[in-house]
Design brief:
The chain has about 325 residues and is α/β, with parallel strands linked by helices. It has twelve helices and twelve strands. The protein has two domains: about 1-145 and about 285-325, Isopropylmalate Dehydrogenase, CATH 3.40.718.10; about 150-285, Isopropylmalate Dehydrogenase (3-Layer(aba) Sandwich), CATH 3.40.718. Helix 7 (about 175-195) packs across helix 8.
């Protein structure tokens, strides 16, 4: 395979479960050089509190050592204020973004091969004075991308979103023929590139119940979604729909497609989280870098208890390695 990929693992919200999940990953074997980005003393404190036998080593740029079990290499980024598990502190809002910036800059420069992110708390970043709608949008802005695509995957199920973190009343106005054609293009391209699917089959959901019932339950399918599918198909993209969202996830129908494009966050994600919660992976498509993440939040109530499950973060790391190595 040649030189092992070097993966930047961000530790996320310091008061959440992210730091301990990163420590848990250190117990496993990984075919990569794994670098955790975060506060070294925070990780050390959490390891001591949970009796996790993980040795922390300082990251040395240029040194390319394979991951060793029970050792976590740390690229230190200092906290702004001491952190207590389960207690959010707006003083650390900038720290969370500093961690992300180190990982993003390092991946853009080629220092890292990919980014795997532990969960962050959007609300506390905003309370800290920084407008922040989520990892997806922040990564797009920092990498100069105008159209990121959020996709969750679990097993063979892949669900991408036409819109992400929007109030439901704004979804209809955010969907255009042009945006859907662009999103379908990104989805088609990245399924070919990262999943090696020769001709991806994409199911496109309608926005309204029963996909609009021929215009009787809304006309977005007739005005926007249907024409976008036709234009995408003219470009060689194998897209089908618009299909009723309440039937596209029936196993018999779902098995005919490689991915589903849902129109909004809670149209597609509840299904995949029900099917694979704790082991699903959030992937940001359309970026010049590879980024994967967990399918859950910061779980403040579990932070510091030792009961948090690292299954989704492990799956995210595994997928990131597969995406950058092609294996």
């Amino acid at each position: 395979m040649g030189q092992l990929p070097r993966i930047a693992l961000t530790s996320g919200e310091p008061a959440g479960i992210g730091p301990e999940l990163c420590l848990q990953l250190a117990h496993e074997e990984w075919p990569c050089a794994l670098v955790c980005v975060g506060d070294r003393e925070l990780l050390a404190e959490r390891a001591r509190a949970l009796s996790l036998p993980v040795a922390l080593e300082e990251y040395v740029p240029g040194r390319h050592l394979p991951h060793r079990r029970d050792v976590l290499v740390v690229r230190h980024v200092p906290l702004a204020a001491p952190s207590t598990p389960g207690r959010l502190d707006a003083r650390n809002a900038r720290y969370v973004l500093d961690v992300l910036d180190v990982a993003i800059d390092g991946t853009l420069s080629g220092e890292f091969s990919a980014i795997v992110t532990a969960p962050v708390q959007k609300s506390i970043v905003n309370e800290g004075g920084v407008a922040f709608t989520g990892h997806t949008e922040y990564l797009a802005e920092r990498t100069g991308v105008s159209r990121p695509v959020m996709m969750l995957t679990a097993g063979g199920m892949r669900v991408a979103l036409a819109t992400t973190h929007l109030p439901l009343r704004e979804v209809s106005g955010a969907i255009t023929v042009e945006s859907l054609v662009e999103i379908l293009g990104i989805l088609d391209r990245d399924l070919r590139r990262h999943w090696r699917i020769e001709r991806p089959r994409i199911a496109v959901c309608g926005l309204n119940p029963h996909a609009g019932e021929g215009g009787h339950l809304g006309d977005e399918e007739l005005r926007i979604i249907g024409p976008a599918i036709e234009r995408a198909r003219a470009q060689g993209i194998h897209a089908s729909g618009p299909l009723p969202a309440d039937t596209v996830f029936v196993p018999r129908i779902l098995g005919q497609y490689d991915a589903v494009l849902a129109m909004y966050h809670d149209q597609g994600l509840p299904v995949i989280k029900h099917a694979g919660f704790g082991h699903a992976v959030n992937v940001t498509l359309g970026l010049p870098i590879v980024r994967t993440s967990v399918d859950h939040g910061t779980a403040l109530e579990l932070a510091g208890t030792g009961r948090a499950d690292a299954g989704s973060l492990a799956a995210a790391l595994r997928l990131a390695i597969e995406m950058v190595t092609g294996e």
